[in-house]
From TrEMBL:
Transmembrane feature ranges: 21-40, 101-121, 147-171, 201-223, 235-259, 279-302
Keywords on record: Membrane, Transmembrane, Transmembrane helix
Top-level taxonomic group: Bacteria
Organism: Erysipelothrix piscisicarius
Origin organism lineage: Bacteria, Bacillati, Bacillota, Erysipelotrichia, Erysipelotrichales
Identification of the protein by name: Uncharacterized protein
Amino acid sequence: MDANRIWISGWGMFIKRRNEFRYYVLLFCVSLFLFGFMFLNELDIYQIIVSYFQNSNESLFNSDVGIFFSDSSEITFIKYTSIELHNALKYSSFEASLTRALSLFQIVVPLLASFAGLIMYHNQTSCNVLKSYRVKKYRNFIRNEQLRIAISVAGSIFSAYVLYYLIILFISGGRFDAYTIHTYLFLDVLGNKFYYQHLKFYYFLLGIVKYLLIPFVLAYLSTSIALFSTKKSTVVFGLLIYYFGLSVLMFPLVSVGTIDKFPIAMLFAPSTIFSISDYNTAPTILLFITNSMPLILGYVLFNHKTRGKHLEIS
């Protein structure tokens, strides 16, 4: 009887892991699609499409593209967009494709990280087998589940970035703008010389921070929010309120004080670490400290929910 129970429990766990894996594959695909979408936006592909439909074949033939055709009648949508896209790719730079092109990712990262909370919520409301766990084991189990899910979600996003990174490296051949540094994360510690000497490694390191560590801490907070949630919408909106709410609250306080000429308030805005504009010179160590807040808050929520309690199944 015990052997049958163990076999059934193990089979149920296998099914649960397989279903979770589908979510991680979906998250990888969504992240990769978003990276590609933002890259095409950087290439002005949408302006190219609009230009084709707004101008006649004669006008296009008299433009720079005309040299590729012997007659205006040869110009088709596929040929025109292919030529313009090829020209845009020739002038695309390695670092701009990994920074400016992906700047909008700061808007979607909390949505992607909330996948972790949704998975945790599903597990919390469906895994009745956990009723038998004692208090101490229950705490350990929940902590391990949070870490496992958060790491898996962050790993899915980072895997998409790594593939995107390799594609951009192949397309651009590592071509970069020698006169512009788009982001200064780590450079206050490592120096600008490190940036130019190890450009490819620098942007891989930057990817680890932006697309692995940051999604991980947000995903961990999302799993902690799920421990208190009775609805799926609460899991998603809880993380969005933290991320965007804190960012909005910090903007009116930019003039309150500075550290190394950087506004203190912006250190606490979760989106600052993705910035490539006015707020891209934040002190690296302080930025890492403030971005660990979701981990601390998540642990506080976890500790409050699980201390001296058994699992509650509704």
